[in-house]
Amino acid sequence: MLAVALAQAREGAVAGGVPVGAALFAADGTLLGAGHNRRVQDGDPATHGETAAFRAAGRRPDYAGTTMVTTLSPCFFCAGLVRQFRIPRLIIGEATTFGGQHAWLAEHGVEVTVLDDPECAELMGRFAKEHPETWLEDIGGPEPGPA
Asked: 50 catalytic, yes or no?
């Protein structure tokens, strides 16, 4: 399943965007939808990898049994999507480049698996180093310091 999300991340990178890919799968492993971050390409701040995959999956009466797979730990926005629609499982390629909100999701009953995939980490790490302004824009700026 990660291979689908990783292919999406590579596609986003080739198109000049943030290389985060995601895919939503049914309980039986059927691919429902896949997509990649298109914030740069479309000038749309809401098109993250997870939201693109979610939109590609189309409208469903519920998301019981589904699994969201993403190359990078989800931000607050995408974690909210997973929680809002009760997606029960989340598989993450890597959570080192960006810690994201997977711990929060796990605290709220989502089954979370972090794979520590080296290719996901290399792809995202390279992008963050080569495009720091775009990277910080995508994650909502640097983490705030202590108050």
From this structure: yes
